[in-house]
Amino acid sequence: MTAPTKYLLDESQLPRAWYNIQADLPQPAPAVLHPGTLQPIGPDDLAPLFPLELIKQEVSTEREIEIPEPVRDIYRLWRPAPLYRAHRLERALGTPAKIFYKYEGVSPAGSHKPNTAIPQAFYNQQAGVKRLTTETGAGQWGTSLAFAGSLFDLEVLVFQVRVSYEQKPYRRAVMETYGARCVASPSAETVYGRSVLAQRPDHPGSLGIAISEAVELAVQREDTKYALGSVLNHVLLHQTVIGLEAMQQLQMADAWPDVVVGCTGGGSNFAGLAFPFMGDALRGGRKARIVAVEPAACPSLTRGRYAYDFGDTGHLTPLTKMHTLGSTFTPPGFHAGGLRYHGMAPLVSHCKELGLLEAVAYTQGECFAAGVAFARAEGIVPAPEANHAVKGAIEEALRCKREGRSETILFGLCGHGHFDMASYQKYFAGELKDEAYDEQELALALAGLPSVPGTGV
């Protein structure tokens, strides 16, 4: 009898609590600083942007934080998500490795993003909030928050990075179907957006700019808060349902990963898969190699500096210590729009500094080639972002082939590419070029990092 292809959990096995890696880290992450005073921020500093419950989660060091039942009830629309054994990909590669992937494309929005959009909408509704502002790159996060807003009767305004807004009109259509309003960023709707357009009317946009626009509007009205789809501690926390489920499913398969691979832009889907395994190892369990895969055109982990920086281009946010390319850095318009952020999540960055993970970068061409090979073997067309994890997993499997090692590889397939077929069309037509970032712009952006006395940066 052949080994099963998919491992499914019953709804009763849905995790009851999120996992907080801050409870197990050997050293606490550096404090978040107020940009004016350079002192650690407090709850009052975050109150204009987030409801109190999310602020508590942001700073919590408790290992487990209970998932509210209304959130679990909505999670049941697609969770627990399946774990697959990639038998056909293994055969296509001729590798002795066992390859598993956790598939998040089964959510209504087609990605992992609703894992945090739902609780963020829930906590905001509980706090009496009526409107949420946010940013989105490829559109996965904007779609997910629009979906969550429709369930909790919240108005949602999404600033989408202009290059993605133009590349992916169907994402915008889905957001509008859920009732959200989607605006190309930089826009004329904010003071900061207008200032960017005044300097460069054809600006392609960036996540940093879109964040500035969303934050600017959020602080202007008492009934409005800001929601972020990655980077922040509470966002990574919510995503750990991915890894917690995967642990149960791998036990069903009588397997445990030697390598865990995830794509990284802001860090949420990577952390969601990897942090539960990392935490298990920190508590004395079996250690796995943790590999973060990022785009060569926006390589914050492999080329960025570990320093205090703003989370947005307009410098409206607090200072966080992270691997950054500089808040003014604008990456080229490559097609993995969700991986175009200038910085990496502070917790992911901190874990890299502690030696708990390693990072690699690949060009979009080789990632699309990996995604096509995966689709032809396994049948699922990955999102351009997820192609980076596919590429990383294939490289690990080929290493096992060269070394004759039968290792177990787990990677996160964070979403499907059904809204990204224009990118695949360009790839097949030979029009999808590998975009290189401007070295001079990177140098200028890094030279402009804030000076924070006593931190070495």
From TrEMBL:
Keywords: Amino-acid biosynthesis, Aromatic amino acid biosynthesis, Lyase, Pyridoxal phosphate, Tryptophan biosynthesis. HAMAP family: Trp_synth_beta (MF_00133). This is Tryptophan synthase beta chain. SUPFAM superfamilies: Tryptophan synthase beta subunit-like PLP-dependent enzymes. It comes from the Bacteria. It holds the Pfam family PALP. Its cofactor is pyridoxal 5'-phosphate. It is an enzyme of class 4 (lyase). InterPro entries: Trp_synth_b-like (IPR006316), Trp_synth_b_CS (IPR006653), Trp_synth_beta/beta-like (IPR023026), TrpB-like_PALP (IPR001926), TrpB-like_PALP_sf (IPR036052). Residues 77-415 form the Tryptophan synthase beta chain-like PALP domain. It catalyses: (1S,2R)-1-C-(indol-3-yl)glycerol 3-phosphate + L-serine = D-glyceraldehyde 3-phosphate + L-tryptophan + H2O. Pathway: Amino-acid biosynthesis; L-tryptophan biosynthesis; L-tryptophan from chorismate: step 5/5. One of its GO terms (cellular component) is cytoplasm. The keyword Nucleotide-binding does not apply. Belongs to the TrpB family. Tetramer of two alpha and two beta chains. The beta subunit is responsible for the synthesis of L-tryptophan from indole and L-serine. The modification N6-(pyridoxal phosphate)lysine is found at K113. Its EC number is 4.2.1.20. GO terms for molecular function: L-serine hydro-lyase (adding indole, L-tryptophan-forming) activity; pyridoxal phosphate binding; tryptophan synthase activity. The gene is trpB.
